């Protein structure tokens, strides 16, 4: 198998020049698991600051990208602009954008295609609401979100999937290791069926939603959990413990 452990830090709309610089200084000084791939996603205003200050070996991700290379699209940033600036990853399809900004599956898929074609890695987020979980629709919701992307993107080698149950994001209510592992295994099964067995073997599937340094070591032990997308805790020194939780 040998999927490299991956930890992303999603700062969301948090931070200032001072606090982002402090987080970066902490990461630069920290002893990090050499086998972990680490990517941080600050607000777009701080992407270049992060890239300039962050040590080599830690990558920077945008939190969003548009699906056109350039033009009259006020407020948007393209994959080409990110790539040229040394920003090598982007998040796409985070539930906060799906819910608050009403991004649908087709738009998420179109942006994923544009990002991959533009040479970026994509942290593709998916996840169900509490209502959908209680209705027994979790797997159906998540695979429908992913299928929209599979219809447009054939090469999944630069996609990392982040499974983030909406009810666990920012709530302190983490999915149990069994709940997370069950959905991760189902996503891998879906990859095998709808994409390829190679994609099923190689694609990293991250868990996100109230990950802390306390729950990460247990979650990291699950067979189909290949890392984390961390929100709130990525702004704290404990982010370093989460990065190191696979070797803990
Ligand atoms: P959280 O956010 O860790 O603060 O729950 C995770 C995410 O939304 O990516």
TrEMBL record:
Domain of life: Eukaryota
Listed pathway(s): Carbohydrate degradation; glycolysis; D-glyceraldehyde 3-phosphate from glycerone phosphate: step 1/1; Carbohydrate biosynthesis; gluconeogenesis
EC numbers: 5.3.1.1
GO molecular function: triose-phosphate isomerase activity
Enzyme class: isomerase
Homology family: Belongs to the triosephosphate isomerase family.
UniProt-listed PROSITE patterns: TIM_1 (PS00171), TIM_2 (PS51440)
Swiss-Prot/TrEMBL catalytic activity: D-glyceraldehyde 3-phosphate = dihydroxyacetone phosphate
SUPFAM superfamilies for the chain: Triosephosphate isomerase (TIM) (SSF51351)
Protein name (record): Triosephosphate isomerase
GO biological process terms, semicolon-separated: gluconeogenesis; glyceraldehyde-3-phosphate biosynthetic process; glycerol catabolic process; glycolytic process
Pfam families: TIM
GO cellular component: cytosol
Entry keyword set: Gluconeogenesis, Glycolysis, Isomerase
Gene3D superfamilies the UniProt entry points to: Aldolase class I
Subunit structure as annotated in this protein's UniProt entry: Homodimer.
């Amino acid at each position: 198998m040998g999927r490299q452990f991956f930890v992303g830090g999603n700062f969301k709309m948090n931070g200032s020049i001072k606090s982002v610089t402090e987080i970066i200084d902490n990461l630069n000084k920290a002893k990090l698991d050499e086998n972990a791939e680490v990517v941080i996603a600050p607000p777009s205003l701080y992407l270049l600051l992060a890239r300039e200050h962050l040590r080599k070996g830690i990558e920077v991700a945008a939190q969003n990208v548009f699906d056109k290379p350039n033009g009259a699209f006020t407020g948007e940033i393209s994959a080409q602009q990110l790539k040229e600036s040394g920003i090598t990853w982007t998040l796409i399809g985070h539930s906060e954008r799906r819910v608050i900004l009403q991004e649908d599956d087709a738009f998420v898929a179109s942006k994923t295609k544009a990002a991959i074609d533009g040479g970026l890695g994509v942290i593709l987020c998916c996840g169900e609401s509490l209502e959908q979980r209680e209705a027994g629709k979790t797997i159906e919701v998540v695979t429908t979100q992913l299928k929209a992307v599979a219809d447009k993107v054939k090469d999944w080698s630069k996609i990392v999937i982040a499974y983030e149950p909406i009810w666990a994001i920012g709530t302190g209510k983490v999915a149990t290791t069994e709940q997370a592992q069950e959905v991760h295994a189902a996503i891998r099964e879906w990859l095998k069926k709808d994409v390829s067995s190679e994609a099923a073997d190689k694609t990293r599937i991250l868990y996100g939603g109230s990950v802390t340094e306390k729950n990460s070591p247990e979650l990291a032990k699950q067979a189909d959990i290949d890392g984390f997308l961390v929100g709130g805790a990525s702004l704290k020194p404990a982010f370093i413990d989460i990065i190191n939780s696979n070797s803990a």
